[in-house]
């Protein structure tokens, strides 16, 4: 199996509500195999690491990935299933005590997910070594320090 150790950033598309994006983040952070090939590695850097920006709309992921899963055609399947299974939150109750739910565009199709997230997932230095990917991730954080709650150097 081919592996790539590096950093990615995932950005919430405008089409997803916060409760839906939380489900996607949970999917990634729980370490599904495709995004976490070495969960028990003796090298800590090879294990899954994540970092969300303060408002939770972006997620940086460091891990050992299956490179063939770092394309919309593949991760779209996982995310589609995740979004179609997650239950929307109750936002209130009507006068008869029935729950009120947010507008729910399900069922999602793989193509819809691919279009939504296609330009919102970046794998830094995907064809290079881990160090280059890390350098690119750190450069991104430096360029976007305020958005990530950091003081610019």
Can you describe what's shown?
The protein is α+β, with helices and mostly antiparallel strands and 153 residues long. It has one domain. The protein has 4 helices and 6 strands. α2 crosses α3. The model has no long low-confidence stretch (mean pLDDT 86).
Chain-wise SSE layout:
Elements: E1 4-11, H1 18-29, E2 49-52, E3 58-65, H2 72-85, E4 92-93, E5 99-100, H3 110-117, E6 121-124, H4 130-143
Question: What tags apply to this protein structure?
Answer:
153 residues; alpha+beta; 4-stranded antiparallel beta sheet; two-stranded antiparallel sheet; 4 helices
**How many angstroms separate the termini?**
39 Å
Low-confidence stretches: none
Largest sheet: 4 strands, antiparallel
On the 0 to 100 scale, the average pLDDT is 86
**How much is the radius of gyration in Å?**
17 Å
Approximately what portion of the residues adopt beta-strand conformation? 15-25%
User: How large is the count of helical segments?
Assistant: 4
Number of domains: 1
Number of strands: 6
Give the class from helix and strand content and strand pairing: alpha+beta
As a percent range, the share of helical residues equals: 25-40%
Shape: globular
SSE sequence, one letter per element: EHEEHEEHEH
Strand order of the largest sheet: 2-3-1-6
